[in-house]
Automatic annotation (TrEMBL), chain A:
Keywords: Cell membrane, Membrane, Transmembrane, Transmembrane helix. It is found in: Cell membrane. PANTHER family: HIGH-AFFINITY BRANCHED-CHAIN AMINO ACID TRANSPORT PROTEIN BRAE, HIGH-AFFINITY BRANCHED-CHAIN AMINO ACID TRANSPORT SYSTEM PERMEASE. The chain crosses the membrane at residues 7-25, 37-58, 70-90, 102-122, 170-189, 256-282, 294-318. It holds the Pfam family BPD_transp_2. It is a multi-pass membrane protein. The lineage of its organism: Bacteria, Pseudomonadati, Myxococcota, Myxococcia, Myxococcales. It comes from the Bacteria. This is Branched-chain amino acid ABC transporter permease.
TrEMBL record, chain B:
It comes from the Bacteria. It comes from Pendulispora rubella. Keywords: Amino-acid transport, Cell inner membrane, Cell membrane, Membrane, Transmembrane, Transmembrane helix, Transport. This is Branched-chain amino acid ABC transporter permease. PANTHER family: BRANCHED-CHAIN AMINO ACID TRANSPORT SYSTEM PERMEASE PROTEIN LIVH, HIGH-AFFINITY BRANCHED-CHAIN AMINO ACID TRANSPORT SYSTEM PERMEASE PROTEIN LIVH. The chain crosses the membrane at residues 12-35, 42-59, 65-86, 98-117, 159-177, 206-226, 272-295. Belongs to the binding-protein-dependent transport system permease family. LivHM subfamily. It is found in: Cell membrane. InterPro entries: ABC_transp_permease, BCAA_transport_permease. Its main location: membrane. It is a multi-pass membrane protein.
Amino acid sequence: MDLPKIILRSAVPLLIGIPILWIFQGAVGGPGGTETAMAVILMMAGINVILAVSLNVVNGFTGQFSIGHAGFMAVGAYTAAKITVATNSLEIVGIPTAVSDQLIFLFAMVAGMAMAALMGLLVGMPSLRLRGDYLAIVTLGFNEIIRVLIENTEFLGQATGISGLPKRTNILWVGIAVIVTIAMAKRLLGSTHGRALLAIREDEVAAEAMGVDTTGYKVRAFVISSAFAGLAGALLVHQIQLCTPRSFTFIKSIEVVVMVVLGGMGSVTGSVVAALVLSFALEGLRDVQQYRMVMYSVLLIALMLTRPTGIFGTREIWDMIPKLRKKVSS
Amino acid sequence: MTEFLQHLVNGLSVGTIYALIALGYTMVYGVLKLINFAHGDVYMVGAFAGLYISRGLGVDQEPSLAKAGVVFIGAIVICAALGVAIERFAYRPLRQRARLTALITAIGVSFLLEYGFQLPPVIDGEVPFPPGPTPRFFPEPFARVDFEPFGVHISNYDIVSLVVAVGFMLALQYIVYRTKFGTAMRAVSFDASVAGLMGINVNRVIVWTFALGSGLAAAAAILVAGSRPSINPLLGLLPGIKAFVAAVFGGIGNVQGAMVGGLILGLSEEYVAGYLLSSYRDGIAFALLIIVLLWRPEGLFGRVRAEKV
């Protein structure tokens, strides 16, 4: 495929998505923090979709087990929060304030992604050389180190965090981010890079013997995954308008792992469905908060005992319905 | 000098505890190749088992050495049983599956214990069960006596804890290297399927390994609860992870490695926190872990094993 065609194909989901999101935004969320409860739930669900799909790139496609996703979220969130708070009163000359605010937010999100990606590179380079379970413990350790560092840094507001963030996250931004994340995952899966990742998942030693640069591919997948975790973090803190280390604990990481595992390790649509189902289910369970984590853990154990590859396994939704399958593959 | 000695005492007392917990991780990893994430929570259950037993015996009204012994042994037995149950119901069905599956299950079990213990009470009492998120006070099993040799503050709890912990480690060392069961355990650790063909009952070895490891975690919990009496359902989280770090440090699957790893971790935490960065205490373990893994991916005493396809 030549370049213009690739660009066109990449733009199609956004060209279709943005108008729909725009209408949606008008329907459920008014401007300037007057959004309905429904809009809040939708945004949270969208952020969870970004997290689950991005973690799936490492845990599902590559078969490595990372449990420190919240650490990368924190990096992206704090980077973006510092930028938007510092530039809150500024505006780009010659553009209306509303537009300039959004541009600054876009810049903050991209900066958050870049910082998270950099952190992913720093953590991934050494730890992805290790085999097996060690990555889990290193990422968990990284998550804890980030938390300890934030709690000890005055610049980042220590345990109280940064408050008074401008409210920038809206349905449109979350929607665009979701589309970009899913498109990234789908296109990655279909690429040479993605095939190499799948080979590593199936048998790392064999893949290496076939000449796949296993560490290199794993590190790149890890960096991509961290970048999108950073994006989700940036969106999250500009939704709740507060950036504290409490939002990015080990528990948050596990919540995302549960989504990925539930949906199926390696299934993009599976992650999306699981993230949506769990987000809405948790909303319904708000009255019985204390049972929430118990249900999570029981769900996790039961699922592993009965369906160790998750509900969808490595299949996508359309693989399950023969008619749809033909349409998608043709 | 006094400060240095004080840190040495504190570091040793924390380090032996890490070592006791790390032994459980390392033994389970040795036979199953599984990071038993729930081990830290078994430790927590040990502390609560001790609390319930001491309530039942009325330790807080009249403490005695005999009661302390009952609390200690009782907690160990309860945790050993819990460890066996976890193995039987959560890990055994998955033994032939991918290791990732077992790891996720272990995380699930860990969360189930942590949050299960925070649920609203089912059985009411002075301390209800489950105990809920409120911190509970662990009664002192015997009178505290403080010594101040050379200006260093030591209590009889520190001494008892050190003696008991070292005693347990020596006993474990004897079991692993001098008894028939220990030989079987090492054989299973080396290659479970071949050990099975040689007539070793692999399941029994694994069950006893879990029982031993969980019992040691309970012992550690009671020793800690004596000197730091506030206990809550999340108290196993950090010591659990740190003890795992200690086990990885020494080379996971290696019994002496876990002991040395625990001591190194305890001492380095104490010295770094004492002299340089007190508020970074919880991060030190992970920083050390990453450094050690980069330098020696198999840990200090670990052997490099070629991966088979």
